[in-house]
Design brief:
There is one protein chain. This protein is α/β, with parallel strands linked by helices. It contains eleven helices and eight strands. The strands form two sheets. It has a six-stranded parallel sheet with strand order 3-2-1-6-7-8, with helices on both faces. Bound molecules: ligand PTJ. Ligand PTJ binds next to helix 2 and helix 4.
Length: 249
């Protein structure tokens, strides 16, 4: 594969592409994952390829929510597995959140490959191989979940997807933390907490924040959540994209 010089102005973006392509080649990422990555890149370009202040606030709120959760879970798809496997495993260890592979373009082969990949990156138990429950009202393959995992979770961390799962999860009482560079997507608009930022920046940030908040008493974590306004964060992300490129809303 072509080497990317570190001084290339779009170095990080090109490295991310390389990881997604590698994910497709090794069979963990769906070919549609390439298209999703392209959509994400376009929004990342608009937001300035940086973590804006409202996304930082959302990362604090998400970390507080994960630490307060009784049964948190991290839902892993083919893109997040390719981009941030080490960080997903570390977040699972730090917060006690289980990992469950849940795919839109589900094949048994990809499920097994992603589980193996996460184990190679340090995960102990990874759910998703034998789903035995269904999210009501969700007919896509993403509706197949594990009773001990997503089905009984109180907080679901959902990196990188757009669709109807978020609403279905909310309707059965879950709180959803979404990572999505597109603030207009269905998932971004519906989630309890939406982090409008690139998953490759989000994960290292969240790991630092979780370590910082880990020893805080619950009332401090509840304060962080009470002071967070998701709608404001989404509006800020849209306005940032418009202002940066001098588009009037
Ligand atoms: O592995 P599977 O089978 O579960 O499939 C995963 C994909 C991502 C292919 C599937 O869920 C899909 O098609 O997703 P969408 O509908 O393309 O939505 C992906 C969302 O993630 C879009 O809103 C993108 O803007 C956003 N996105 C893409 N790359 C990133 C991102 N958000 C944050 N960081 C990224 N790197």
């Amino acid at each position: 594969m072509t080497e990317i010089p570190e001084n290339h102005p779009r170095y990080h973006s090109l490295i991310t592409r390389k990881l997604i392509v590698k994910g497709v080649e090794s069979g963990i990422t769906s070919t549609n994952g390439l298209i999703a990555q392209g959509r994400g890149e376009a929004f990342d370009y608009l937001i300035g390829e940086t973590t804006i202040a409202s996304a930082r606030d959302a990362q604090y709120a998400a970390s507080a929510m994960l630490l307060l959760a009784k049964r948190p879970i991290i839902s892993v798809n083919g893109n997040s597995a390719a981009l941030v496997p080490d960080e997903l495993v570390e977040l699972s260890i730090l917060t006690g959140a289980a990992l469950e592979v849940n795919l839109f373009y589900r094949t048994e082969d990809r499920i097994l490959k992603i589980i193996k990949h996460l184990r190679a990156h340090g995960a102990q138990d990874v759910l998703g191989e034998s789903p035995n429950a269904a999210i009501p009202g969700l007919s896509s393959e993403r509706g197949k979940v594990c009773q001990a995992g997503i089905y009984s979770a109180d907080v679901v961390f959902v990196p990188l997807e757009d669709g109807d799962r978020c609403e279905a999860l909310l309707s059965i009482g879950k709180q959803v933390i979404a990572v999505d560079l597109n603030p207009l997507s269905r998932t971004a608009q519906k989630a309890t907490i939406t982090i409008v930022d690139n998953i490759t920046r989000v994960m290292p940030n969240i790991l630092k924040i979780v370590k910082e908040l880990n020893n805080h008493p619950n009332n401090k974590l509840i304060d962080i959540l009470d002071n967070f306004n998701n709608k404001k964060g989404l509006d800020d992300a849209i306005m940032t994209m418009c202002k940066k490129h001098k588009v009037s809303k």
